[in-house]
From TrEMBL, chain A:
Molecular functions (GO terms): ATP binding; ATP hydrolysis activity
InterPro entries (UniProt xref): AAA+_ATPase, ABC_transporter-like_ATP-bd, ABC_transporter-like_CS, ABC_transporter_ATP-bind, P-loop_NTPase
Keyword annotations: ATP-binding, Nucleotide-binding, Transport
A matching Pfam family: ABC_tran
Signal peptide segment: none
Gene name per UniProt: ssuB_3
Keyword Nucleotide-binding (UniProt): yes
Annotated PANTHER family: ALIPHATIC SULFONATES IMPORT ATP-BINDING PROTEIN SSUB (PTHR42788:SF13), TAURINE IMPORT ATP-BINDING PROTEIN-RELATED (PTHR42788)
Gene3D superfamilies: P-loop containing nucleotide triphosphate hydrolases (3.40.50.300)
Name the UniProt record assigns to this protein: ABC transporter ATP-binding protein
Regions crossing the membrane: none
Domain ABC transporter residue range list: 10-231
TrEMBL record, chain B:
A Gene Ontology term for the protein's cellular component: plasma membrane
Transmembrane segments: 37-58, 97-116, 128-150, 156-175, 195-215, 221-244, 256-277
Biased composition regions of type Low complexity, renumbered to the chain: 15-26
Entry keyword DNA repair: no
Domain spans labelled ABC transmembrane type-1: 90-278
Name the UniProt record assigns to this protein: ABC transporter ATP-binding protein
Entry-linked CDD domains: TM_PBP2
Record-stated family: Belongs to the binding-protein-dependent transport system permease family.
Stretches the record annotates as Disordered: 1-28
Keywords: ATP-binding, Cell membrane, Membrane, Nucleotide-binding, Transmembrane, Transmembrane helix, Transport
Length: 248, 294
Protein backbone atom coordinates (compact mmCIF):
# COMPACT_ATOMS: atom_id res chain seq x y z
CA UNK A 1 0.00 0.00 0.00
CA UNK A 2 2.83 2.38 0.86
CA UNK A 3 4.66 3.62 -2.18
CA UNK A 4 7.61 6.00 -2.22
CA UNK A 5 5.78 8.98 -3.64
CA UNK A 6 2.37 9.56 -2.19
CA UNK A 7 -0.03 12.44 -2.02
CA UNK A 8 -0.83 13.99 1.32
CA UNK A 9 -3.67 12.25 3.10
CA UNK A 10 -5.49 15.47 3.89
CA UNK A 11 -4.76 19.09 3.15
CA UNK A 12 -6.74 21.98 4.60
CA UNK A 13 -6.04 25.31 2.89
CA UNK A 14 -7.88 28.26 4.38
CA UNK A 15 -10.80 26.01 5.30
CA UNK A 16 -13.61 27.52 7.38
CA UNK A 17 -16.80 25.97 8.67
CA UNK A 18 -19.99 27.85 9.42
CA UNK A 19 -22.92 25.67 10.46
CA UNK A 20 -26.36 26.20 9.01
CA UNK A 21 -27.43 28.00 12.17
CA UNK A 22 -24.86 30.69 11.38
CA UNK A 23 -22.33 29.57 13.98
CA UNK A 24 -18.75 29.75 12.79
CA UNK A 25 -17.00 26.73 14.26
CA UNK A 26 -13.72 27.15 12.41
CA UNK A 27 -11.83 30.22 11.24
CA UNK A 28 -9.44 29.59 8.31
CA UNK A 29 -7.49 26.39 8.94
CA UNK A 30 -4.26 25.37 7.27
CA UNK A 31 -3.12 21.87 8.04
CA UNK A 32 -1.50 19.04 6.13
CA UNK A 33 -1.28 15.40 7.11
CA UNK A 34 1.34 13.54 5.15
CA UNK A 35 1.20 9.79 4.55
CA UNK A 36 2.01 7.82 7.68
CA UNK A 37 2.08 10.91 9.84
CA UNK A 38 0.60 10.94 13.33
CA UNK A 39 -0.93 14.30 14.17
CA UNK A 40 -2.68 14.96 17.45
CA UNK A 41 -5.02 17.81 18.26
CA UNK A 42 -5.49 19.47 21.64
CA UNK A 43 -7.74 22.38 22.51
CA UNK A 44 -10.59 23.44 24.77
CA UNK A 45 -13.91 21.73 24.20
CA UNK A 46 -16.02 23.44 21.57
CA UNK A 47 -13.02 24.73 19.62
CA UNK A 48 -13.93 22.69 16.57
CA UNK A 49 -11.76 19.58 16.91
CA UNK A 50 -14.54 17.18 16.00
CA UNK A 51 -15.65 19.46 13.18
CA UNK A 52 -12.12 19.34 11.79
CA UNK A 53 -11.97 15.55 12.08
CA UNK A 54 -15.33 15.09 10.37
CA UNK A 55 -14.20 17.23 7.47
CA UNK A 56 -10.98 15.20 7.17
CA UNK A 57 -13.16 12.10 6.96
CA UNK A 58 -15.36 13.61 4.28
CA UNK A 59 -18.39 13.56 6.57
CA UNK A 60 -18.83 17.32 6.40
CA UNK A 61 -17.76 19.82 3.79
CA UNK A 62 -15.98 23.13 4.26
CA UNK A 63 -17.90 26.38 3.98
CA UNK A 64 -15.01 28.17 2.30
CA UNK A 65 -11.41 27.28 1.46
CA UNK A 66 -9.96 24.21 -0.11
CA UNK A 67 -9.92 20.73 1.32
CA UNK A 68 -8.17 17.96 -0.55
CA UNK A 69 -8.52 14.42 0.63
CA UNK A 70 -5.89 12.02 -0.69
CA UNK A 71 -6.63 9.11 1.60
CA UNK A 72 -8.45 6.23 -0.01
CA UNK A 73 -9.52 4.46 3.13
CA UNK A 74 -10.54 6.19 6.37
CA UNK A 75 -11.37 4.57 9.64
CA UNK A 76 -13.16 6.43 12.36
CA UNK A 77 -12.62 5.53 16.02
CA UNK A 78 -15.03 7.13 18.47
CA UNK A 79 -14.78 7.94 22.15
CA UNK A 80 -17.02 4.97 22.92
CA UNK A 81 -16.33 1.53 21.46
CA UNK A 82 -19.55 1.85 19.39
CA UNK A 83 -20.01 -1.88 18.93
CA UNK A 84 -23.10 -3.84 17.99
CA UNK A 85 -24.07 -5.35 21.34
CA UNK A 86 -25.80 -8.34 19.71
CA UNK A 87 -22.87 -9.38 17.52
CA UNK A 88 -19.73 -11.11 18.75
CA UNK A 89 -16.23 -9.66 18.63
CA UNK A 90 -15.37 -11.27 15.28
CA UNK A 91 -18.56 -10.10 13.56
CA UNK A 92 -18.04 -6.58 14.91
CA UNK A 93 -14.49 -6.59 13.58
CA UNK A 94 -15.62 -7.80 10.16
CA UNK A 95 -18.32 -5.14 9.87
CA UNK A 96 -16.71 -2.69 7.46
CA UNK A 97 -15.42 -5.36 5.08
CA UNK A 98 -18.82 -7.03 5.08
CA UNK A 99 -20.53 -3.78 4.14
CA UNK A 100 -17.97 -3.26 1.39
CA UNK A 101 -18.63 -6.79 0.09
CA UNK A 102 -15.02 -7.85 0.41
CA UNK A 103 -14.89 -11.62 -0.30
CA UNK A 104 -15.68 -13.76 2.74
CA UNK A 105 -12.29 -15.40 3.16
CA UNK A 106 -10.45 -12.10 2.86
CA UNK A 107 -12.86 -10.45 5.31
CA UNK A 108 -12.19 -13.18 7.82
CA UNK A 109 -8.43 -13.06 7.32
CA UNK A 110 -8.30 -9.29 7.91
CA UNK A 111 -10.47 -9.47 11.01
CA UNK A 112 -8.53 -12.32 12.59
CA UNK A 113 -5.27 -10.56 11.84
CA UNK A 114 -6.53 -7.30 13.34
CA UNK A 115 -7.75 -9.09 16.46
CA UNK A 116 -4.37 -10.75 16.79
CA UNK A 117 -2.69 -7.35 16.55
CA UNK A 118 -4.75 -5.98 19.44
CA UNK A 119 -4.35 -9.18 21.47
CA UNK A 120 -7.94 -10.34 21.31
CA UNK A 121 -7.62 -13.51 19.23
CA UNK A 122 -8.94 -15.55 22.15
CA UNK A 123 -12.27 -13.80 22.57
CA UNK A 124 -13.59 -13.83 19.01
CA UNK A 125 -16.86 -15.43 20.05
CA UNK A 126 -17.50 -13.19 23.06
CA UNK A 127 -20.14 -10.52 23.07
CA UNK A 128 -19.09 -6.93 23.85
CA UNK A 129 -20.76 -6.96 27.26
CA UNK A 130 -18.57 -9.86 28.32
CA UNK A 131 -15.45 -7.72 27.87
CA UNK A 132 -13.85 -5.00 29.96
CA UNK A 133 -13.91 -1.37 28.81
CA UNK A 134 -10.31 -1.57 27.61
CA UNK A 135 -10.97 -4.77 25.67
CA UNK A 136 -14.02 -3.27 24.01
CA UNK A 137 -11.97 -0.28 22.93
CA UNK A 138 -9.45 -2.69 21.45
CA UNK A 139 -12.25 -4.35 19.47
CA UNK A 140 -13.09 -0.90 18.16
CA UNK A 141 -9.44 -0.45 17.18
CA UNK A 142 -9.39 -3.88 15.54
CA UNK A 143 -12.48 -3.02 13.53
CA UNK A 144 -10.72 0.11 12.28
CA UNK A 145 -7.51 -1.81 11.49
CA UNK A 146 -9.40 -4.57 9.68
CA UNK A 147 -10.57 -2.10 7.07
CA UNK A 148 -6.88 -1.49 6.27
CA UNK A 149 -7.00 2.30 6.48
CA UNK A 150 -4.37 4.72 5.32
CA UNK A 151 -5.88 7.31 7.66
CA UNK A 152 -7.25 6.74 11.14
CA UNK A 153 -9.50 9.45 12.51
CA UNK A 154 -9.69 9.17 16.27
CA UNK A 155 -11.95 11.38 18.38
CA UNK A 156 -10.84 11.17 22.02
CA UNK A 157 -10.66 7.40 21.61
CA UNK A 158 -9.35 6.57 25.08
CA UNK A 159 -11.10 9.28 27.07
CA UNK A 160 -13.58 6.92 28.68
CA UNK A 161 -10.89 4.55 29.99
CA UNK A 162 -9.12 4.60 33.33
CA UNK A 163 -5.67 6.15 33.31
CA UNK A 164 -3.74 2.90 33.47
CA UNK A 165 -5.62 1.31 30.56
CA UNK A 166 -5.45 4.56 28.69
CA UNK A 167 -1.64 4.66 28.86
CA UNK A 168 -1.44 1.10 27.65
CA UNK A 169 -3.80 1.82 24.76
CA UNK A 170 -1.63 4.74 23.67
CA UNK A 171 1.44 2.48 23.68
CA UNK A 172 -0.52 -0.09 21.75
CA UNK A 173 -1.52 2.44 19.12
CA UNK A 174 2.13 3.35 18.62
CA UNK A 175 3.02 -0.32 18.27
CA UNK A 176 0.26 -0.83 15.68
CA UNK A 177 1.40 2.24 13.84
CA UNK A 178 4.89 0.79 13.59
CA UNK A 179 3.47 -2.25 11.86
CA UNK A 180 1.07 -0.54 9.51
CA UNK A 181 2.26 3.08 9.19
CA UNK A 182 -1.19 4.57 8.62
CA UNK A 183 -1.75 8.27 9.03
CA UNK A 184 -3.47 9.30 12.26
CA UNK A 185 -5.45 12.35 13.26
CA UNK A 186 -5.91 12.00 16.98
CA UNK A 187 -8.00 14.24 19.22
CA UNK A 188 -7.23 14.12 22.94
CA UNK A 189 -7.66 16.10 26.13
CA UNK A 190 -4.37 14.86 27.50
CA UNK A 191 -1.44 17.01 26.40
CA UNK A 192 1.01 14.34 27.49
CA UNK A 193 -0.77 11.70 25.42
CA UNK A 194 -0.80 14.09 22.45
CA UNK A 195 2.94 14.70 22.66
CA UNK A 196 3.81 11.08 23.36
CA UNK A 197 1.89 9.66 20.45
CA UNK A 198 2.42 12.07 17.58
CA UNK A 199 4.87 13.61 15.16
CA UNK A 200 3.09 16.92 15.50
CA UNK A 201 0.68 18.42 18.00
CA UNK A 202 -1.91 20.87 16.70
CA UNK A 203 -2.81 23.37 19.42
CA UNK A 204 -6.23 24.91 18.96
CA UNK A 205 -8.19 27.73 20.58
CA UNK A 206 -11.81 28.76 20.41
CA UNK A 207 -13.82 31.86 19.60
CA UNK A 208 -13.64 31.21 16.66
CA UNK A 209 -12.00 27.77 16.40
CA UNK A 210 -8.50 28.14 15.05
CA UNK A 211 -5.00 26.69 15.11
CA UNK A 212 -2.71 28.55 17.48
CA UNK A 213 0.43 26.63 16.76
CA UNK A 214 1.68 23.32 15.43
CA UNK A 215 4.32 21.90 17.77
CA UNK A 216 6.82 19.20 16.80
CA UNK A 217 6.94 16.32 19.23
CA UNK A 218 10.38 15.55 20.70
CA UNK A 219 9.47 11.85 20.71
CA UNK A 220 7.83 11.04 17.38
CA UNK A 221 6.55 7.45 17.19
CA UNK A 222 8.94 6.23 14.49
CA UNK A 223 12.27 7.15 15.98
CA UNK A 224 12.46 6.03 19.51
CA UNK A 225 13.62 3.07 21.32
CA UNK A 226 11.65 3.10 24.58
CA UNK A 227 14.53 4.83 26.29
CA UNK A 228 13.84 8.06 24.45
CA UNK A 229 10.43 8.38 26.10
CA UNK A 230 9.58 10.35 29.22
CA UNK A 231 12.57 12.57 28.82
CA UNK A 232 12.92 16.15 29.95
CA UNK A 233 12.22 17.20 26.38
CA UNK A 234 8.79 15.60 26.53
CA UNK A 235 8.04 17.28 29.85
CA UNK A 236 9.14 20.59 28.48
CA UNK A 237 6.97 20.30 25.38
CA UNK A 238 3.98 19.35 27.53
CA UNK A 239 4.60 22.40 29.71
CA UNK A 240 5.00 24.63 26.68
CA UNK A 241 1.73 23.48 25.11
CA UNK A 242 -0.04 23.88 28.43
CA UNK A 243 1.12 27.49 28.54
CA UNK A 244 0.03 28.09 24.95
CA UNK A 245 -3.43 26.72 25.71
CA UNK A 246 -3.74 28.83 28.83
CA UNK A 247 -2.69 32.00 27.00
CA UNK A 248 -4.97 31.52 24.00
CA UNK B 1 -44.86 8.87 22.41
CA UNK B 2 -46.20 8.83 25.92
CA UNK B 3 -46.55 5.09 26.04
CA UNK B 4 -43.01 4.24 25.00
CA UNK B 5 -41.12 2.78 27.91
CA UNK B 6 -37.54 3.78 28.22
CA UNK B 7 -35.22 0.93 27.40
CA UNK B 8 -31.94 1.61 29.18
CA UNK B 9 -28.64 1.18 27.37
CA UNK B 10 -26.42 -1.71 28.31
CA UNK B 11 -24.21 -0.67 31.22
CA UNK B 12 -20.50 -1.38 31.23
CA UNK B 13 -19.95 -5.02 32.06
CA UNK B 14 -17.78 -6.05 34.94
CA UNK B 15 -14.11 -6.17 34.18
CA UNK B 16 -12.78 -9.69 33.81
CA UNK B 17 -9.18 -10.07 34.86
CA UNK B 18 -8.01 -11.78 31.68
CA UNK B 19 -9.31 -12.43 28.18
CA UNK B 20 -9.66 -16.09 29.09
CA UNK B 21 -11.84 -15.20 32.03
CA UNK B 22 -14.13 -13.32 29.70
CA UNK B 23 -14.32 -16.09 27.16
CA UNK B 24 -15.09 -18.83 29.63
CA UNK B 25 -16.51 -17.50 32.88
CA UNK B 26 -14.79 -19.41 35.66
CA UNK B 27 -17.81 -19.15 37.93
CA UNK B 28 -20.42 -21.55 36.57
CA UNK B 29 -23.83 -20.09 35.92
CA UNK B 30 -26.08 -20.66 38.86
CA UNK B 31 -28.80 -23.12 38.01
CA UNK B 32 -32.15 -22.10 39.48
CA UNK B 33 -31.86 -24.29 42.57
CA UNK B 34 -34.93 -25.18 44.61
CA UNK B 35 -33.98 -22.56 47.12
CA UNK B 36 -33.82 -19.63 44.68
CA UNK B 37 -36.98 -20.72 42.90
CA UNK B 38 -38.74 -20.84 46.24
CA UNK B 39 -37.49 -17.36 47.10
CA UNK B 40 -39.21 -16.12 43.93
CA UNK B 41 -42.48 -17.98 44.33
CA UNK B 42 -42.93 -17.89 48.09
CA UNK B 43 -43.39 -14.14 48.78
CA UNK B 44 -46.22 -13.57 46.29
CA UNK B 45 -47.77 -16.88 47.34
CA UNK B 46 -47.81 -15.80 50.98
CA UNK B 47 -49.41 -12.49 50.03
CA UNK B 48 -52.07 -14.34 48.03
CA UNK B 49 -52.91 -16.71 50.86
CA UNK B 50 -53.15 -13.88 53.37
CA UNK B 51 -55.33 -11.80 51.05
CA UNK B 52 -57.70 -14.68 50.30
CA UNK B 53 -57.93 -15.65 53.96
CA UNK B 54 -58.67 -12.04 54.90
CA UNK B 55 -61.33 -11.86 52.20
CA UNK B 56 -63.00 -15.03 53.47
CA UNK B 57 -62.76 -13.91 57.09
CA UNK B 58 -64.27 -10.46 56.50
CA UNK B 59 -67.23 -11.92 54.62
CA UNK B 60 -67.91 -14.57 57.26
CA UNK B 61 -67.50 -12.00 60.01
CA UNK B 62 -69.89 -9.38 58.62
CA UNK B 63 -72.22 -11.76 56.83
CA UNK B 64 -71.93 -10.01 53.48
CA UNK B 65 -74.57 -11.49 51.13
CA UNK B 66 -73.28 -13.71 48.38
CA UNK B 67 -74.94 -11.69 45.61
CA UNK B 68 -72.84 -8.65 46.58
CA UNK B 69 -69.44 -10.15 47.29
CA UNK B 70 -68.91 -13.88 47.00
CA UNK B 71 -66.48 -15.48 49.41
CA UNK B 72 -63.45 -17.28 47.97
CA UNK B 73 -65.07 -20.59 48.86
CA UNK B 74 -68.21 -19.61 46.94
CA UNK B 75 -66.11 -18.83 43.89
CA UNK B 76 -64.25 -22.10 44.28
CA UNK B 77 -67.53 -24.01 44.60
CA UNK B 78 -68.79 -22.35 41.41
CA UNK B 79 -65.94 -23.76 39.30
CA UNK B 80 -67.59 -27.17 38.94
CA UNK B 81 -71.00 -26.05 37.71
CA UNK B 82 -69.68 -23.07 35.69
CA UNK B 83 -66.73 -24.60 33.91
CA UNK B 84 -68.84 -25.92 31.05
CA UNK B 85 -70.25 -22.47 30.35
CA UNK B 86 -66.90 -20.67 30.65
CA UNK B 87 -64.60 -22.68 28.41
CA UNK B 88 -66.21 -21.58 25.14
CA UNK B 89 -66.35 -17.85 26.00
CA UNK B 90 -62.73 -17.98 27.16
CA UNK B 91 -61.68 -19.48 23.84
CA UNK B 92 -63.69 -16.88 21.94
CA UNK B 93 -62.09 -13.98 23.82
CA UNK B 94 -58.72 -15.59 23.44
CA UNK B 95 -59.15 -15.81 19.68
CA UNK B 96 -60.24 -12.20 19.41
CA UNK B 97 -57.54 -10.85 21.70
CA UNK B 98 -54.70 -12.88 20.25
CA UNK B 99 -55.87 -12.23 16.69
CA UNK B 100 -56.02 -8.52 17.47
CA UNK B 101 -52.59 -8.72 19.07
CA UNK B 102 -51.06 -10.35 15.98
CA UNK B 103 -52.74 -7.84 13.71
CA UNK B 104 -51.44 -4.99 15.87
CA UNK B 105 -47.94 -6.49 15.94
CA UNK B 106 -47.73 -6.82 12.16
CA UNK B 107 -49.39 -3.51 11.29
CA UNK B 108 -47.67 -1.66 14.14
CA UNK B 109 -44.23 -2.84 13.12
CA UNK B 110 -44.84 -2.19 9.42
CA UNK B 111 -46.06 1.35 10.06
CA UNK B 112 -43.08 2.11 12.31
CA UNK B 113 -40.72 0.66 9.71
CA UNK B 114 -42.15 2.83 6.95
CA UNK B 115 -42.06 5.88 9.21
CA UNK B 116 -38.43 5.27 10.18
CA UNK B 117 -37.36 4.55 6.63
CA UNK B 118 -38.96 7.54 4.91
CA UNK B 119 -39.12 10.86 6.71
CA UNK B 120 -42.03 12.01 4.58
CA UNK B 121 -44.02 9.02 5.77
CA UNK B 122 -43.29 9.86 9.38
CA UNK B 123 -44.40 13.46 8.95
CA UNK B 124 -47.53 12.33 7.16
CA UNK B 125 -48.51 9.48 9.46
CA UNK B 126 -47.48 10.53 12.92
CA UNK B 127 -50.34 12.95 13.61
CA UNK B 128 -52.82 10.21 12.78
CA UNK B 129 -51.06 7.73 15.03
CA UNK B 130 -51.43 10.19 17.89
CA UNK B 131 -55.02 10.85 16.90
CA UNK B 132 -55.73 7.12 16.87
CA UNK B 133 -54.34 6.90 20.37
CA UNK B 134 -56.41 9.79 21.70
CA UNK B 135 -59.75 8.58 20.26
CA UNK B 136 -61.59 6.67 22.99
CA UNK B 137 -61.94 3.31 21.30
CA UNK B 138 -65.07 2.56 23.24
CA UNK B 139 -66.68 5.43 21.36
CA UNK B 140 -65.62 4.00 18.00
CA UNK B 141 -66.71 0.43 18.76
CA UNK B 142 -70.40 1.07 17.94
CA UNK B 143 -69.35 2.44 14.53
CA UNK B 144 -67.42 -0.74 13.88
CA UNK B 145 -70.42 -2.79 14.95
CA UNK B 146 -72.47 -1.02 12.28
CA UNK B 147 -69.80 -1.59 9.65
CA UNK B 148 -68.60 -5.06 10.48
CA UNK B 149 -71.58 -6.39 12.37
CA UNK B 150 -71.46 -7.59 15.97
CA UNK B 151 -69.18 -10.52 16.61
CA UNK B 152 -65.60 -11.69 16.73
CA UNK B 153 -64.42 -9.72 13.66
CA UNK B 154 -65.37 -6.41 15.23
CA UNK B 155 -63.89 -7.39 18.57
CA UNK B 156 -60.64 -8.42 16.93
CA UNK B 157 -60.43 -5.07 15.16
CA UNK B 158 -61.12 -3.19 18.39
CA UNK B 159 -58.39 -5.20 20.13
CA UNK B 160 -55.95 -4.41 17.32
CA UNK B 161 -56.81 -0.70 17.38
CA UNK B 162 -55.99 -0.44 21.06
CA UNK B 163 -52.84 -2.54 20.81
CA UNK B 164 -51.30 -1.01 17.69
CA UNK B 165 -50.10 2.27 19.12
CA UNK B 166 -47.68 0.95 21.74
CA UNK B 167 -46.13 -1.31 19.11
CA UNK B 168 -45.64 1.50 16.62
CA UNK B 169 -44.48 4.06 19.17
CA UNK B 170 -41.92 1.77 20.77
CA UNK B 171 -40.66 0.33 17.49
CA UNK B 172 -40.26 3.80 16.04
CA UNK B 173 -38.36 4.97 19.11
CA UNK B 174 -36.05 1.97 18.80
CA UNK B 175 -35.48 2.36 15.07
CA UNK B 176 -34.72 6.07 15.44
CA UNK B 177 -32.57 6.02 18.55
CA UNK B 178 -29.91 3.76 17.08
CA UNK B 179 -26.42 4.86 18.12
CA UNK B 180 -25.58 7.86 15.90
CA UNK B 181 -21.96 6.81 15.57
CA UNK B 182 -22.87 3.32 14.42
CA UNK B 183 -25.18 4.80 11.83
CA UNK B 184 -22.34 7.05 10.72
CA UNK B 185 -20.00 4.07 10.53
CA UNK B 186 -22.43 2.22 8.27
CA UNK B 187 -22.85 5.28 6.08
CA UNK B 188 -19.09 5.83 5.78
CA UNK B 189 -18.57 2.23 4.71
CA UNK B 190 -21.19 2.76 2.01
CA UNK B 191 -24.01 0.64 3.44
CA UNK B 192 -27.35 0.90 1.66
CA UNK B 193 -30.41 2.08 3.58
CA UNK B 194 -31.76 -1.42 3.35
CA UNK B 195 -28.62 -2.98 4.80
CA UNK B 196 -28.56 -0.40 7.58
CA UNK B 197 -32.16 -1.23 8.43
CA UNK B 198 -31.78 -4.98 8.52
CA UNK B 199 -28.34 -5.31 10.05
CA UNK B 200 -28.29 -2.32 12.40
CA UNK B 201 -31.58 -0.59 13.11
CA UNK B 202 -33.93 -3.54 13.45
CA UNK B 203 -31.70 -5.59 15.78
CA UNK B 204 -31.03 -2.45 17.79
CA UNK B 205 -34.77 -1.80 18.03
CA UNK B 206 -35.65 -5.35 19.07
CA UNK B 207 -35.78 -4.64 22.83
CA UNK B 208 -38.06 -1.69 22.12
CA UNK B 209 -40.29 -3.75 19.84
CA UNK B 210 -40.67 -6.38 22.53
CA UNK B 211 -41.49 -3.75 25.15
CA UNK B 212 -44.21 -2.49 22.81
CA UNK B 213 -45.54 -6.01 22.36
CA UNK B 214 -45.64 -6.53 26.11
CA UNK B 215 -47.84 -3.46 26.51
CA UNK B 216 -49.92 -4.54 23.53
CA UNK B 217 -50.50 -7.97 25.11
CA UNK B 218 -52.50 -6.39 27.94
CA UNK B 219 -54.20 -3.82 25.71
CA UNK B 220 -55.46 -6.35 23.19
CA UNK B 221 -57.35 -8.33 25.85
CA UNK B 222 -58.90 -5.10 27.12
CA UNK B 223 -59.86 -4.27 23.53
CA UNK B 224 -61.49 -7.64 22.92
CA UNK B 225 -63.57 -7.41 26.10
CA UNK B 226 -64.59 -3.81 25.42
CA UNK B 227 -65.65 -4.95 21.96
CA UNK B 228 -67.75 -7.68 23.52
CA UNK B 229 -69.37 -5.25 25.96
CA UNK B 230 -70.49 -3.09 23.07
CA UNK B 231 -71.01 -5.57 20.27
CA UNK B 232 -72.52 -8.26 22.42
CA UNK B 233 -72.96 -11.79 21.28
CA UNK B 234 -73.43 -11.41 17.54
CA UNK B 235 -74.65 -14.51 15.81
CA UNK B 236 -72.46 -17.06 17.51
CA UNK B 237 -70.99 -17.73 20.89
CA UNK B 238 -70.29 -14.72 23.14
CA UNK B 239 -66.93 -14.15 24.77
CA UNK B 240 -66.00 -13.39 28.37
CA UNK B 241 -67.10 -9.76 27.99
CA UNK B 242 -70.60 -11.01 27.24
CA UNK B 243 -70.50 -13.43 30.20
CA UNK B 244 -69.38 -10.58 32.45
CA UNK B 245 -72.22 -8.24 31.42
CA UNK B 246 -74.92 -10.91 31.58
CA UNK B 247 -73.83 -12.43 34.92
CA UNK B 248 -73.58 -8.92 36.39
CA UNK B 249 -77.15 -8.18 35.34
CA UNK B 250 -78.32 -11.40 36.98
CA UNK B 251 -76.15 -10.84 40.07
CA UNK B 252 -74.47 -14.21 39.57
CA UNK B 253 -71.48 -12.96 41.49
CA UNK B 254 -69.37 -16.14 41.88
CA UNK B 255 -69.67 -16.79 38.14
CA UNK B 256 -68.86 -13.16 37.36
CA UNK B 257 -65.72 -13.44 39.47
CA UNK B 258 -64.71 -16.59 37.63
CA UNK B 259 -65.17 -14.83 34.28
CA UNK B 260 -62.95 -11.98 35.43
CA UNK B 261 -60.31 -14.44 36.59
CA UNK B 262 -60.52 -16.23 33.23
CA UNK B 263 -60.04 -12.91 31.40
CA UNK B 264 -56.98 -12.20 33.53
CA UNK B 265 -55.57 -15.60 32.65
CA UNK B 266 -56.04 -14.92 28.93
CA UNK B 267 -54.08 -11.69 29.39
CA UNK B 268 -51.44 -13.26 31.61
CA UNK B 269 -50.78 -16.10 29.18
CA UNK B 270 -50.15 -13.73 26.28
CA UNK B 271 -47.99 -11.50 28.43
CA UNK B 272 -46.01 -14.54 29.56
CA UNK B 273 -45.48 -15.69 25.98
CA UNK B 274 -44.15 -12.30 24.94
CA UNK B 275 -41.89 -12.19 27.96
CA UNK B 276 -40.58 -15.66 27.12
CA UNK B 277 -39.71 -14.59 23.58
CA UNK B 278 -38.09 -11.48 25.03
CA UNK B 279 -35.88 -13.42 27.41
CA UNK B 280 -34.92 -15.99 24.78
CA UNK B 281 -34.11 -13.36 22.15
CA UNK B 282 -32.28 -10.87 24.33
CA UNK B 283 -30.80 -12.68 27.28
CA UNK B 284 -27.29 -12.79 25.87
CA UNK B 285 -26.94 -9.10 25.12
CA UNK B 286 -29.62 -6.93 26.57
CA UNK B 287 -29.95 -5.85 30.17
CA UNK B 288 -33.74 -6.11 30.24
CA UNK B 289 -33.58 -9.89 29.79
CA UNK B 290 -30.62 -10.77 31.99
CA UNK B 291 -30.76 -12.46 35.31
CA UNK B 292 -29.66 -10.21 38.13
CA UNK B 293 -26.36 -11.96 38.86
CA UNK B 294 -25.04 -11.29 35.35
N1 LIG C 1 -24.21 20.42 13.59
C1 LIG C 1 -23.90 21.56 14.26
N2 LIG C 1 -24.66 22.67 14.13
C2 LIG C 1 -24.35 23.79 14.77
N3 LIG C 1 -23.29 23.94 15.59
C3 LIG C 1 -22.49 22.89 15.76
C4 LIG C 1 -22.75 21.63 15.11
N4 LIG C 1 -21.78 20.76 15.48
C5 LIG C 1 -20.96 21.44 16.31
N5 LIG C 1 -21.38 22.71 16.49
C6 LIG C 1 -20.73 23.73 17.30
O1 LIG C 1 -19.43 23.94 16.77
C7 LIG C 1 -18.50 24.11 17.82
C8 LIG C 1 -17.38 23.11 17.67
O2 LIG C 1 -17.90 21.81 17.90
P1 LIG C 1 -16.96 20.55 17.94
O3 LIG C 1 -16.23 20.47 16.64
O4 LIG C 1 -17.78 19.39 18.31
O5 LIG C 1 -15.96 20.93 19.11
P2 LIG C 1 -14.93 20.03 19.93
O6 LIG C 1 -14.90 18.68 19.30
O7 LIG C 1 -13.64 20.74 19.86
O8 LIG C 1 -15.43 19.98 21.33
C9 LIG C 1 -19.24 23.96 19.12
O9 LIG C 1 -19.50 25.25 19.63
C10 LIG C 1 -20.51 23.26 18.72
O10 LIG C 1 -21.56 23.69 19.55
MG1 LIG D 1 -15.44 16.77 20.12
Amino acid sequence: MTTAVQADLVRFAGVTKTYSNGFTALAPIDLTIGPGKVVSIVGPSGCGKTTLLRMAGGLSSPTTGELSIGSTQNSYVFQDPTLMAWRNVLANTELVSRIRKVPRAETRRRAVEALRLVGLENVQKSLPRELSGGMRMRVSLARALASEPDLMLMDEPFAALDEFTRDRMADELIRLWRERRFGVLFITHSIREAVKIAHEVVVMASGPGRIVEIVESPSPPGTDPDAARDTDALDETVKYIGARLAAA
Amino acid sequence: MSIAEKTPATPPAQTPATPQAAARPTVPRKAPSGRTLLSFVLPPLVVLVIAVALWQALISLFGVPKFLVPAPLDVLAEIGPAIGTLVEPTLVTMGEAYGGFLLAAVVGFAVAFVMARWNVAERGLYPYMVLLQTIPIIAVAPILVVWLGPGPTTNTVVAAMIAVFPVTANTLTGLKSTDRNLVQLFAMAGASKRYEMSVLRIPYALPYVLTGLRIAAGSSVIGAIVGEFVAGIGGGQGGLGYVITSTAQQLLMPRLFLAVIAASCVSLLLFGLVRLVEVLALRRWHESAMSSDD
